[in-house]
Amino acid sequence: MKKANDLFRGETQKDKEKSEPGKTTRKKRVLFICTGNSVRSQMAEALLRAHGGDKFEVFSAGITPAGVHRLTKQVMSEVGISMEGHYSQYVGEYAETSFDYVIPLCEVAALSCPNFPGDYKTINWFIDDPIRVFGDEERKLMAFRITRNIIEKKVLEFIEKNSK
Q1: How far apart, in whole angstroms, are the C-alpha atoms of residue 89 and residue 51?
Q2: Which residues are marked as active site?
Q3: 20 to 30 Å CA-CA from 11: which of 19, 34, 78, 148?
Q4: Is a pLDDT exceeding 50 seen at residue 8?
Q5: Could you tell me the pTM of the whole model?
Q6: Domain 25-162 class?
């Protein structure tokens, strides 16, 4: 399996800046980061792909990858988004990859986020982790749904602001 930074080797600056009429422009690269890459960053990645995949190339990673949470898969399927093929990745896998936007979804990710090559904009979206909710299954499920809805709203705002 290729490492994340191998995916972009060979791309020249000229390739990155194509904007001539009739030619396609490069999609903007976005990396979402959270602690475990199990809930928030997975949701953000899937939602941006679903709503803006034609304009953005989307990735997610965690400081300490913990596997995609089963309730993440459940609440995403409720809105018609499959998490098939999603898996937790370590942020270090992207250490040599350039991005246009890096979006930490929690304070831990923001403080632990490595520097990436090139110029990129960091946008902090500090969203509570639904894993920390105690209670029965329905209460936990509700927390995951609320988190999904908050992230979806932010993703739609991000697309509106940054897809031009």
Answers
A1: 22
A2: 34, 106, 113
A3: 34
A4: no
A5: 0.84
A6: alpha beta
